[in-house]
Amino acid sequence: MIEPQKLKDSLKKFGAQDIILFSEEHSVNNINYLDIVNMSEDHLKPDAVIEFQNEPLMYIINFNNFTYAGTDFEDELIRIKNRLACRGDAPYFGILKPGELQVFSIGLSKDRKLVLFKKDSEEDAILTIPRIGLGEIAVTEEDEKIHDLLYRLLEQSIEEIHRLKFDLYDALSLSARGIFVRFLIDRGFISKEEQKSIFPNEDITYCMSNKENLLKITEWLNLTFNGDLLPISEKAITRIKSLEDSKPLFKILTAIVKKYEPVGVGAYQTRLSWTDIDFAHVPIGLLSEVYEGYCHKYDPTAKKNSIHYTPKRIAEYIVEESINSFSDPCNIRILDPAVGAGIFLVIAFRKLVEKNWIRNGKRPDRKMIRKILSTQITGFDINESALRLAALSLYLTALELDPNPRDIKEIKFDQLREKSLFDMHSPNDIEGKPIMGSLSADKKFHGHEYDLVIGNPPWTTINDQISKKFTSLVRDIAKEQGLEQIAKSYENPDNVPDLPFVWKSMEWCKPDGRIAFVLHARLLFKNSKKGRKAREALFTSFKVTGILNGSCLRNTNVWPGITAPFCIIFALNQKPRKDSKFVYLSPRQDTEINSKGIIRLDYNMADPISLDKALSSSHILKTLSRGVSLDVSIIDKIEKASNTNLLRYWKDHKLNQGQGYQVHVKGDKNPTTFLQSLPNLTNRDELSFIIDTKSLPKFMMGDIHRPRKVGIYKSPLLIIPATPPIQASVCFSDLAYTASFTGFSCHGHENPTILAKYLAALFTSNLFLYYALLTSSKFGVERDTMLKEDIENFPVISVEKLTDQQRKKLEYLFDNYRMKNFQQMIDLFVFEVYGLEKHEIQTISDTLSISLPYRKIIKNAERPPTKEELNLFTRQLRQNLSPFLPKGYTIDTLTLKNSPWNLVILSESSDNSNVNNEIAKILENLTKLINKMGTTRVVFNQKKYCVVACQNQYRYFTSTRARLLALEIMSRKIEVLLE
């Protein structure tokens, strides 16, 4: 057997840094792997796990430990691979042989798909783990994941039980109870003696095979878990008692307990991949996550009350960041006011046990674990099923953490309901209607009791009546805090409950305590008056310390099934000072890593933002979500160049604009005399930059529902489709158009033709696209297309301010609008009008090339840079730094074989022999930094040279990135870097 240190040394040759050995069974490092540590020695088990950026990446099996005579190694590998797949965390496992590492993907299948084979003697061996961790080597996605299998099993069973005339609540509870019985069996929480006491003459796996057994196991579960299990109604119990033992219900439930595969209504067959689902290794948090996903789909009240599950990785990140912010977290009290199935509390419970283990230097005993559970963990909710599952999840977590677990009957728990888990229904609630729930609690209820309030409150819009209560709630809290203006004027935006939960948390949380919530990202980007005021009110009422903006990660596996943008906000329960700042981090989409459900947290990309700037600029958070600090200054310059926007300009000049006529609506009909015989635009396919009215049919209809005002059809016209994508067209004759278009009529302006041409140029230019991308509350947030409000909000330099020369250029453009480089000429014209300089134009081009929310742009951002692009990057960096570099210093890039990074080298001579001689040392230092920091860029220096490692993606090698890197190097004092 290989010695632990030798095992670590062998793995470090492949770039592994954080290695947790399972032979160290009493180490706190193993707290998240107790099921593996406790694996039977009768079969092959992992020797270690490699973590990358605090996430399990690869389980390691030491081939030298395989000593089972007569056992087939291939069969053992398939067995252990499937057991590891049940954990649903690390995507890989590796087989370590003398001098080599074989890497395979983890999934539920009989196959072992080889991903990589590497020898430690190869030059790039040390890059193996970083390449895998950074997504340079793709995971095989063909295997079904444990989450999906559990979801499919529960979905099938719920539907089949529901067809047997059980309501959805009972169908959900019966199915989930079957899974939890299997969970208890596989975890060994039901001793053989206990099994015999329940079923003297039968195997426990037949506990749901007939009505007598089903009623027995139901009663046993209720007694064992204090009734804190998924409820089954008396109506369902009566129906079960009336069934014959041959009925399909018992076959369905037995199939769950015995892990058969569903193949149709009432019919099951055993499949190896189902048999290999070992609930001894399925995380309790994963079971909670799967249940919450089902609850949202099937529970009749879930959607009405905006129940939605939180992925385990996101919950872990929030809990980790929050608890680690306390200097001594061991005794803190934690509240989740929208607890759901308990994912946050389960993770927090484990974290508190871990912190006690670290502080005391020994594993917490049962008494300590129970104390933490009963005195430091609290949850509120309005969903009975969720509360019962939360209780069960916490019970099972306590059993898993117990250093000496025995028969579950011998270590029965105190009841958690109304002590740690509270049903927040009010006597005045109406069944089936949205309710205030946790928000309706009296302010003295758990007032200022908690060090940390955490969770994922509901996001979904609720009816107006409830929203009025939300507004009153926030006003009352603001008044108590002495925020008189907010107390008078606050209006809850969009009828949503998430912001009221944050406000209410200020009452639950201790003064100077911490608050951390997952929220809808509308909080960050709303540009409406009500939205801006709601953001301003919140940011001035408690001290925001950090925001993670997840809007670029929607529609990825980071949060499967959620299309809405999300954000995570961290705060202190204290009023901020005027000079307060917070850290703002906006992870970009990274396809390969996000496909594993992982967020790349690159803190080098985090921006410190002053509270004053966040409040004075309505869109700085949006600008930094798609751009960088240089984009902020460009947006400021565009806005300062103008004193109005299109909508205000139109109102000031009393011009007409609006959607076209409506026909197919029931109601009064109105005459269309002024539309008769006008060219009629009905289809966006008929649009062109200059609309050819000769090719259009004439308007010949009689009276219609809404003909609109005559002024909106007067030429010259700027025509914009009412639905995205935006396409600006100009028309120089009167035009009828349907409600599928919005028209801006320049008729009545002193220079109507020049105005129409000018606007057509503005809204065809890339400057408009750029501005919308970096300021719109919808484009690149909830939609990948623009809206009419994005056009109306664009800062317009008045046409009256155009110089004679600029007017001549505009006329030239329209005279030659069919030329091949027309778009480029339009852009140059508009950039000149707004006074943008060459480097600013380059930043605009770079941002559009990597940050638009389209698939081809995302792909372009993630590809490796070409040699020419690397040369351009180097030239830009040299241009910015040359005035500050000592004479003789050079700047070059170095591309390494099979490396996830490119190196930028600042050296005192063109001879890079110093770097080449120390490349092994550089790579070793790099792997350590990348593993810990999750960064895409590392700057470190040695004598006579400085090395910058940037991830090998085009987005990090644009000219804009070169300028940012130059600023960073200069801010670090270049003479120190190169001393």
Short description:
With 979 residues, the protein is α/β, with parallel strands linked by helices. The protein is 41% helix and 14% strand.
Describe what you observe in this structure.
This protein is an alpha/beta fold and 979 residues long. It starts with a helix and ends with a helix. Mean pLDDT is 86; it is low at 302-307. Strand 3, helix 3 (73-85) and strand 4 (92-97) form a beta-alpha-beta unit. The protein is 41% helix and 14% strand. The chain has 38 helices and 27 strands. The strands form six sheets. Strands 11-10-9-12-13-15-14-16-17 form a nine-stranded mixed sheet, sandwiched between helices. Strands 1-2-3-4-5-6 form a six-stranded mixed sheet. It has a four-stranded antiparallel sheet with strand order 18-23-20-21, covered by helices on one side. Helix 13 (312-324) packs across helix 14.
- Strand ordering within the main sheet: 11-10-9-12-13-15-14-16-17
Gross morphology: globular
Strand content: 5-15%
State the end-to-end CA separation: 48 Å
DSSP summary, beta strand count: 27
- Number of H/I helices: 38
Report Rg. Answer: 32 Å
Topology:
Layout: H1 4-12, E1 18-21, H2 34-37, E2 48-52, E3 55-62, H3 73-85, E4 92-97, E5 100-105, E6 114-119, H4 128-133, H5 146-163, H6 168-186, H7 192-198, H8 211-224, H9 234-242, H10 248-257, E7 261-264, E8 267-269, H11 272-275, H12 284-298, H13 312-324, E9 334-336, H14 343-360, H15 366-375, E10 377-381, H16 384-401, E11 421-423, E12 450-455, H17 464-480, H18 484-489, H19 498-508, E13 509-520, H20 522-525, H21 529-539, E14 543-549, E15 566-572, E16 581-585, H22 591-594, E17 607-610, H23 611-616, H24 620-626, H25 629-641, H26 646-652, E18 657-659, E19 680-681, E20 717-721, E21 729-731, E22 736-737, E23 741-745, H27 752-764, H28 766-775, H29 788-792, H30 804-815, H31 822-833, H32 838-851, H33 855-862, H34 867-881, E24 890-895, E25 901-907, H35 913-917, H36 919-933, E26 937-942, E27 945-951, H37 959-971, H38 974-977
Parallel strand pairs: 3-4, 9-10, 9-12, 10-11, 12-13, 14-16, 19-22
Antiparallel strand pairs: 1-2, 2-3, 4-5, 5-6, 7-8, 13-15, 14-15, 16-17, 18-23, 20-21, 20-23, 24-25, 25-27, 26-27
Helix pairs in contact: 5-6, 5-10, 5-12, 6-10, 6-12, 12-16, 13-14, 14-16, 17-19, 27-30, 28-32, 30-31, 32-33, 34-37
